[in-house]
Amino acid sequence: MVHFVGAGPGAPDLITLRGKRLLEEADVIIYAGSLVNPQLLDYAKEGCSIYNSAEMTLEEVLAVMRQAEQDGKTTVRLHTGDPCIYGAIREQMDALDEDQILYDSCPGVSSFCGAAAALDLEYTLPEISQSVIITRMAGRTPVPDKESIESFAAHRATMVVFLSTSMLEELSERLIAGGYKEDTPAAIVYKATWEDEQTHICTVGTLAQTAKEHHITKTALMIIGDAVSSNSYERSKLYHPEFTTEFRVGKER
Ligand code: SAH
Q: φ, ψ for residue 3 (rounded to 5)?
């Protein structure tokens, strides 16, 4: 059996209890070494075989999983954040299906949640934005044309941009071309929840300059939208004294 496990954004105590138990029980761990905190490997039992997938191809990862299965061993495939976001898990699962190897998934705290925590931020502020767009710039890995940064920027919803730290000038240009004003609040969160985490509030127009000033070239998220620093949001209806819910009768004004 193979367990796909979310490692969380960085801090080793941000893995789920289930994820930790699966790590403790695993005979084989294949971890995404470019981003997973290696301290998580301390949870592995003695004799566990550990592989760093940053140095492996999909075929090599699958070969390790198949061998483990033949030997009756349990494998944990440890992905950074939550495996469902840019985890390249589907291709692994399809191959396991072909080989009739059983697998399941254990969620993790995605880095976009870790970044919000680092900034004490609510992405979905009433009357400011009720949506979060998770996307990336096209780089060596393409993004479908229908998902251009410009088209998403037109919504002026909260946007979290992954995998794009080296392309911030172009990101700014395209955000502005799509409809965000240059002075729209933005933030760069570097290594959210790691010990060397950095948070920088800036604007859409100063993303590249801010990253350059702080020598940030990778492992960062860009957060864009008024939710980053607006004070003009509406209070929530859910907790308003006059609002009736399933659990509480509102008082008349
Ligand atoms: N599955 C992961 C994302 C993997 S893609 C998740 O759910 O978070 C890798 C990208 O995620 C990085 O290029 C960076 O943009 C972002 N990332 C991962 N960990 C991060 C962290 N701790 N802080 C900021 N960005 C992070």
A: -110, 120
Report the atom number in ligand 1 closest to the C-alpha of 191.
23
Distance from Cα 9 to the centre of ligand 1, integer Å: 7
80/109 Cα distance (integer angstroms): 9
Alpha-carbon separation of residue 2 from 46, 74, 77 (angstroms): 19, 6, 7
Q: Which two tokens stand for residue 242?
A: 């006059």
pLDDT tens digits in sequence order for the chain, 253 residues long:
999 999 999 999 999 999 999 999 999 999 999 999 999 999 999 999 999 999 999 999 999 999 999 999 999 999 999 999 999 999 999 999 999 999 999 999 999 999 999 999 999 999 999 999 999 999 999 999 999 999 999 999 999 999 999 999 999 999 999 999 999 999 999 999 999 999 999 999 999 999 999 999 999 999 999 999 977 788 888 899 999 999 999 998 7
Give which of 110, 77, 111, 109 is closest to 95, Cα–Cα: 77
10 in ligand 1 pocket by Cβ < 6 Å?
yes
Neighbours of 155 (CB within 10 A): 15
Do 228 and 201 form a contact (C-beta atoms < 8 A)? yes
Contact 153, 180 (CB under 8 A): yes
Contact in structure between 115 and 223 (CB atoms under 8 Å): yes
The side-by-side arrangement of strands in the sheet containing 198-203 is 132-136, 158-162, 220-224, 185-190, 198-203
- Amino acid in the structure at residue 53: S
Taking CA atoms only, the protein residue closest to ligand 1 atom 4 is: 86
Gap from CA of 81 to ligand 1 centroid (Å): 7
Q: Is 196 exposed, middle or buried (0-12, 13-18, 19+ CB in 10 A)?
A: exposed
